[in-house]
Every structure is written in C-alpha cells, then in structure tokens.
C-alpha cells in the first residue's frame, strides 16, 4: 500500500509525467493493486483560463469580502464564526468544526474498495463527476496485477463500482478501462441526479412523420465524421483573451451587434435546406476552363 504525499513518477517508468494527488491501492477480495490517482483534466477545465478580481470601479482597488454581524454591527474574526444548519426561519443548529472532522476522519484508509463489477455499458455517464487516471506502481512486479485487471475488464466489458476516501470525504467511484490505462470516475449519488421521466413522457406523446425522419437521417449522414479531440476548442476562451489583449494594447473595442432571433420555419423545409446545404458543401467545386494563350486569341481575332 502506498502512503505519503503526492508522488512524481519518473520518465523511466511512465511515458507521461503525471503528478498524483492521492496514493493507495485498489482492493477486491484478497487482491491489492498499488495505484496513484492523477487528475485527467487541468484545474481550470471547468472555467475559463482567465480569472478575474472584483474591483472598486472608482479607483480600481480590489475589494475585500468582510464577514459582518448586523446585530453587533462589527466585522468578525475567523475564531468567532461557526457553521449553522437552518431548520426554520432564523433557527439554526450549530455544528463545531471538530464534530465535522470527526465524521470525515473516521475512515482514513488509503484503499479503493471494489464492491462489484458491472457491465460498463449500463452505467449512464450522467453520474460521472470527475475523471482521474489510475497510475500504476513504479516496480514491474507491482504493475502486473494492474495490467491483469485492465485486460480482464477490457475483454469482459466490465467496470468496477467502489468507494474510497479523498481529502477526508467518502467518494463513490467507477473504474473503467480507457485504452491501455485504467480511469476512475467519481460518481454523483443517485439523489443528486434529476429524473428524466417528465421529458420521456413528453417524447412519448409526440409523433414524427416518416418523411421527416428520413430527411433527419440524411442530415445526420451528411454531417457524420470521426471524433477528433483536437476540435474541442472554446471560442469563448479565445475571444475573451483577444478582448483582454486588445484592451491592454489600448485598442478601441467595437460593440457587437445584437443577435437577431431565429425565425420559426417549417420543419420539413428546414430539413430539406439542411440536406441541400450539406450536399453543396461536400460537392467539389467545378473547375474553371483554362485561359487561352495569347497567340490563340490573336488568331481568333484575325479570323
């Protein structure tokens, strides 16, 4: 079992230089596989790569967030603040930090306990919260059970359901093969995921015509292609950085034109036009006739 703070695996062991944020083991039955947990996405993946501070418009000074008590009419220090659970309007149950820490620290194991293996295709991605890579051990002998589990899960199409403790909090997780690596998805609990029954009911009550469905299939076929991760680029991030750099350079920023509302048109007409536009895009441009030579033009003029 691996313990201690984040470990940096050397290039002689792994092709990718990954920094793990948690180290422990995968456990199921009597098997224990040492692993490290490395985030699969960057810290700013859920936000823009540009961060802002709140400033006073008049002088441009960063503002301070104060914790003010309206009863005593004064700012409070950190040691004067406690957490409260509101059970009714203005009525709270006070909870001390020590009481919360006692709950979160009651299980400090460094093990991902696998409870069962399930068909990976049955797990809806809506339950996925955050993705991590499970990094194998540095020693070849300890990597063998990692590779064994990876191959067995990949060949059977199974994924592993389990739980572990991260930063004092219990996490539900799913371990799945991802190429030649194991990935771990932290999971939302079922109570945190909305039901789609209302949408399904509305869909069941709506019918479509066969000609509409055929045209929709043609639109899909005309836009079909291979998945390319390189195409996952944020126009917002690009435009925001361009805006900031332009303001930094003192350039005048033009106010964008308001976006006009999309007119409501007939569904069949919209589908037909979509198919035609897709076909025109794929159709190769007609070649222009080669220009006549100067000598040939002179002979034609003489006739």
Care to describe what's here?
With 303 residues, this protein is α+β, with helices and mostly antiparallel strands. It has a domain at 22-43 and 104-192: Ku70, Chain: A, Domain 2. Helix content is 28%, strand content 25%. Strand 10 and strand 11 (181-187) form a beta hairpin. Helix 4 runs parallel beside helix 6. The protein is extended and about 65 Å long. It starts with 21 loop residues before the first strand and ends with a helix. The model is unreliable at 1-13 and 293-303 (pLDDT under 50).
- CATH architectural group of the domain at 22-43 and 104-192: Beta Barrel
Structural class: alpha+beta
The low-pLDDT segments are: 1-13, 293-303
Order of H and E elements: EEEEEEHEEHEEEHHHHH
Structure keywords:
alpha+beta; disordered N terminus
SSE topology sketch:
Layout (H helix, E strand, L loop, with lengths): L21 E7 L2 E9 L28 E2 L4 E2 L7 E6 L2 E5 L1 H8 L6 E9 L8 E9 L3 H17 L1 E9 L2 E10 L2 E7 L9 H8 L5 H13 L12 H14 L18 H16 L11 H9 L1
Parallel strand pairs: 1-7
Antiparallel strand pairs: 1-2, 2-8, 3-4, 5-6, 7-9, 8-11, 9-10, 10-11
Summarize the structure.
The protein is of the alpha+beta class and 303 residues long. 28% of the residues lie in helices and 25% in strands.
């Amino acid at each position: 079992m691996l313990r201690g703070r984040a470990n940096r695996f050397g290039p002689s062991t792994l092709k990718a230089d990954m920094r793990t944020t948690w180290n422990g083991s995968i456990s199921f039955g009597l098997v224990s596989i040492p692993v490290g947990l490395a985030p699969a996405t960057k810290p700013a993946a859920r936000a823009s790569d540009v961060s802002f501070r709140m400033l006073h418009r008049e002088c441009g000074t960063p503002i301070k967030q104060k914790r003010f008590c309206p009863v005593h009419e004064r700012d409070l220090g950190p040691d004067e603040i406690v957490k409260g659970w509101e059970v009714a309007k203005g009525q709270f149950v006070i909870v001390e930090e020590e009481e919360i820490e006692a709950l979160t620290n009651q299980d400090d194991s460094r093990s991902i306990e696998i409870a069962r293996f399930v068909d990976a295709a049955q797990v809806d991605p809506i339950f996925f919260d955050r993705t991590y890579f499970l990094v194998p051990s540095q020693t070849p002998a300890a990597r063998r059970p990692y590779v064994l589990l990876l191959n067995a899960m990949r060949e059977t199409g199974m994924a592993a359901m389990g739980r572990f403790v991260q930063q004092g909090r219990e996490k539900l997780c799913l371990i799945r093969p991802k190429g030649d690596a194991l990935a771990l998805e932290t999971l939302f609990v079922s109570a945190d995921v909305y039901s789609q029954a209302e949408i399904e009911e509305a869909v069941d009550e709506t019918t479509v015509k066969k000609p509409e469905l055929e045209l929709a299939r043609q639109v899909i076929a005309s836009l079909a292609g291979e998945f390319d991760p390189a195409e996952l680029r944020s126009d917002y991030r690009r435009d925001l950085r361009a805006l900031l750099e332009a303001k930094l350079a003192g350039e005048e920023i033009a106010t964008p034109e308001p976006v006009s509302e999309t007119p409501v048109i007939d569904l069949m007409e919209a589908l037909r036009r979509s198919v035609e536009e897709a076909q025109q895009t794929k159709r190769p441009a007609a070649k222009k006739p080669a220009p006549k030579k100067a000598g040939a033009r002179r002979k034609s003029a003489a006739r």
